[in-house]
């Protein structure tokens, strides 16, 4: 623990998240956690582009008024990108232009100059960088300060992607493998993981044979922080350390604050309060991936046909349900337009299942709330995260076993009948949802124990502060 014998001036930590809400929010939670863990010692600053300041402030608001005084915000200019409207700087708000932000964000020539200028201007005692910004480890090294990588995913997903990088084989002519192929991972501490090519992250499907610069950068980093807790992924946490994938590993989740009291003034929370225990399926596909209008229609009709109560967070601007749908559903269903208070929703006794895209933060929030999941991954690492939920933890079930893909144009539309069948079966008494709920609640108890005083996450967060303070002291010697 930090002692009074250490230097009195603050440990200044600069945190730099990727340009998407699902990264900015956990980074903000980490900043608050560092400030609390190193009370009176740590001075965290979140660095974002101007249009993303509102996302940071929203995340700080979840922690209460005191959080705004604990965490500072710094800005740097967003790179100039052809075809992108001014002020569009977040993948979650970019719509069809999201690919432009993604491409610019990982382009060292475009994004590094502004980030490096800010780091050199601020001269922090440590940098916490998103793993996508691989160049920041080199910048920090030139300044002689530690760089810590913060990954929103856990060790199961990270190790699986690492093995996929080694296992994926291109065809003899250098082209991509056939979409019907799959990779089988064995001996890892799990009997077997099978992943079709179509469900792999895009960077693995298009790999050039060169080592991913993010992987190289991780090897240079002082350490790696992961948004999980040790007891949830114990064998994979141990393997990550044993294989030396990180010089130092810190498992610090859950970082977000407990949900507000049940009487929070949100219409959806009040609506949930009127429903029986474990009767409602909560539906949300996160803040980024696009869902077609045809798929939204089938989902709407499937939820209607399931006969089960549902709360659906719909992010698609301008989408209108099928004619007469709202009248037929009546009070059995509720739509929430835009961002929903997800942690508060999952904490409600009425929620019996979470139909989710398997984003890492959503999975962690469901685990912490003890809610089992119906899985419907869409992009990136979500198909790997699904396997953690369904195969490793046993707290979820797939909605659909038809053709799925990380590419929008390759997906099949999941029919309403499949949605209705999956939801009804999962929520029926004695079904898979009930068994998954029991296991999820066991993990929830472990999550709460992890962040309690003396718990694994509580100690790892304080160990991170101590290690950075020690690195600062050594740097003066």
UniProtKB/TrEMBL annotation:
Entries under CDD domains matching the protein: GT1_Gtf-like
Keyword set, alphabetical order: Transferase
Pfam families: UDPGT
Signal peptide, first to last residue: none
Entry superkingdom: Eukaryota
Record GO terms (molecular function): transferase activity
UniProt similarity note: Belongs to the UDP-glycosyltransferase family.
Protein name: Glycosyltransferase
């Amino acid at each position: 623990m930090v002692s009074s014998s250490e230097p009195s001036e603050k440990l200044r930590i600069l945190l730099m998240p990727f340009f998407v809400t699902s990264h900015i929010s956990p980074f903000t939670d980490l900043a608050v956690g560092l400030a609390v863990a190193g009370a009176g010692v740590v001075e965290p600053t979140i660095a974002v582009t101007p249009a993303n300041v509102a996302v940071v402030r929203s995340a700080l608001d979840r922690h209460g008024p005191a959080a705004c005084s604990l965490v500072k915000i710094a800005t740097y200019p967003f790179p100039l990108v052809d075809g992108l409207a001014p002020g569009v700087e977040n993948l979650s708000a970019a719509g069809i232009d999201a690919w432009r932000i993604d491409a610019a964000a990982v382009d060292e020539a475009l994004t590094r100059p502004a980030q490096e200028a800010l780091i050199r201007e601020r001269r922090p005692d440590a940098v916490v960088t998103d793993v996508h910004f691989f160049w920041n480890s080199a910048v920090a090294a030139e300044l002689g300060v530690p760089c810590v990588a913060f990954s929103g995913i856990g060790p199961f997903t990270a190790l699986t992607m690492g093995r996929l990088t080694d296992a994926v084989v291109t065809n003899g002519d250098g082209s991509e493998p056939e979409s019907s192929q799959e990779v089988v991972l064995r001996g890892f501490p799990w009997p077997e993981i099978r992943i079709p090519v179509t469900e792999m992250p895009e960077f693995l499907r298009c790999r050039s044979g060169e080592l991913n610069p993010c992987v190289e950068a991780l090897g240079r980093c002082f350490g790696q922080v992961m948004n999980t807790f040790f007891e949830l992924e114990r064998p994979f946490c141990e393997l990550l350390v044993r294989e030396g994938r990180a010089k130092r590993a810190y498992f610090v989740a859950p970082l977000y604050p407990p949900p507000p009291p049940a009487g929070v003034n949100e219409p959806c929370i009040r609506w949930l309060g009127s429903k029986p225990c474990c009767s409602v399926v909560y539906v949300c596909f996160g803040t980024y991936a696009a869902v077609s209008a045809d798929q939204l229609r089938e989902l709407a009709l499937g939820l209607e046909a399931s006969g089960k109560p549902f709360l659906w967070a719909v992010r698609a601007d301008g989408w209108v349900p099928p004619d007469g749908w709202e009248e037929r559903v009546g009070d059995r269903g509720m739509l929430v337009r835009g961002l929903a208070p997800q942690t508060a929703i999952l904490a409600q006794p009425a929620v019996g299942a979470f139909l989710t895209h398997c984003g890492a933060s959503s999975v962690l929030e469901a685990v912490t709330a003890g809610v089992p999941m119906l899985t419907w991954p869409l992009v990136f690492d979500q198909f790997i995260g699904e396997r953690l939920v369904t195969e490793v933890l046993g707290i979820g079930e797939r909605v659909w076993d038809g053709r799925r893909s990380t590419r929008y144009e390759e997906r099949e539309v999941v029919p309403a009948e499949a949605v209705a069948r999956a939801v009804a079966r999962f929520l029926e008494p004695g079904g898979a949802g009930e068994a998954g709920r029991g296991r999820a609640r066991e993990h929830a108890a472990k999550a709460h124990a992890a962040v309690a005083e003396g718990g694994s996450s509580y100690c790892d967060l304080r160990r991170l502060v101590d290690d950075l303070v020690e690195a600062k002291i050594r740097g003066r010697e």
